[in-house]
Amino acid sequence: MNRFSCRFQGELFFRLTERFKQAYTETKKGGETMNQKQLSQCCKTIWEASELRFKEKKSSAALADFLEQEGFTVERGIGKLATAFRAQVGQGRPVIGLLAEYDALEGLSQIAGVTHPEPRPGYKSGHGCGHHLLGCAVAKAACLVKEALDGKSGTIIVFGCPAEEGGSGKTYMARAGLFDELDCALTWHPSSINTVISGSYQANVQLYFHFHGVASHAAGSPHLGRSALDAVELMNVGVNFLREHIEDSDRIHYALIDCGGKSPNVVQAAASVLYLIRSENNEKASALVERVKQVAQGAALMTETTLEIEFDKACSSMLSNPVLENVLWKAMQQTSLPHYDDSEKKAAEAFKRTISEENLYLGMPKILRRYPELQRRYLEEPLCTWIVPYEHSEALQMGSTDVSDVSRVTPTAQFNAACYCMGTLGHSWQLCAQGLSAPAWKGMDYAAEVLKTAVLNLLDDPQRIAEAKAWHLEKTRGEKYHCPIPEEVLPKTNY
Ligand SMILES: [Zn+2]
Fold this sequence. Notes:
Layout: H1 3-26, H2 36-49, H3 57-69, E1 73-76, E2 85-91, E3 95-101, E4 105-106, E5 125-126, H4 131-149, E6 154-161, H5 169-175, E7 184-191, E8 195-197, E9 200-201, E10 203-212, H6 228-242, E11 251-258, E12 270-279, H7 282-303, E13 306-315, H8 322-334, H9 342-352, H10 357-362, H11 372-380, E14 396-397, H12 403-409, E15 412-418, H13 429-433, H14 438-460, H15 462-476
Parallel strand pairs: 3-6, 3-7, 7-15, 9-14
Antiparallel strand pairs: 1-2, 2-6, 4-5, 8-15, 10-12, 10-13, 11-12
The structure holds zinc ion.
Residues 129, 131, 164, 189 line the site of zinc ion.
């Protein structure tokens, strides 16, 4: 792609974005009084700041300030997490939590609107998971509910949840008991399709393995050195052999954090590797962690180095509540889906052409195999203008989210709203590049309306919450939430 067409695409995209934002800001729905302009700005601020786990200072403040100005009672730094907040409105029961996120991803810096990978100068991170839209739609939904409360009994709490990506912010919040006051919780996630999210997600544990050896001249006195880098390498080799003897639902990933330096003529005295270990549930994840630890100990033994294991974070497996899933399913159908004009479809088509056929099939919900017409539309159309048929599932999906820990404390459900061209995968440059597009804004708006409708339906029909709680009680057998992060472990801002 030449520079001119790249710039042209970028400009066209921004004109579309600006035009939509203008229309979006001017068109207030009946009785709506919230400051839409400020919310749009807040969303853009979060996308631009692209702040990483537990460092979301600007992003968290932008959302908390907005809600405070909208009349919510805001508490910042809750659960000893500087970038977490709680914003409350209303009174009495039920107490409904809405979960907002706003953190970005390392290594996904990307210029908006450009249909090829091109990092934003000066930035290493980007919103490759759409959490700028996530947080803002939740804030908007809460404002819309506030406007419609009209003397109804009910408390709405927006939880500003930091560090979903690699930090398990909500797990720390759950450990601090912040969700104990809730009767239920709802949230959503930006996606390329409109669907209720059902099924389970993996539990995970993340640990640092630090090896300590002895530095020495690699040529002059190699026999006096003990290499921590060798230990890391042997640990990785050992774990790669271990992979053959683990369950299909297990996953083990690692990243080299510290290779011990850049001098091959020095025996590396310190080296570290970070492991992310996933399994079907907390118990299985913990058991797998023990096996990985043994491999690490073996590597230390072989290299005569010492090993220090540092617990980073963990999250539980998901317990998605079918009663609340149905509430969301109904609300999704009650809410008008966005319409897209030709220029928006054309821009989405350009992005869809960058997605490989393999990725496109991977992103297709399995349930569509039973709906050939919807499958055809998913594969051929640029944007999702329909809702994926819903069916409750408890099948395990590969991947993890800290929403799971909220789901272990209180009945929880979530949905996806289409914000990107169909087939856009999470954590991709394409997703980051579409983050400020007109479909992204429209998807955010749709999500806010769905959440509002779902909350109002729950306030009007408290029996649903009682049913959701009964299901939750049966599944958890009434056992109190057990946090997979030990009490003494504090959140880390470093990688
Ligand atoms: Zn995400």
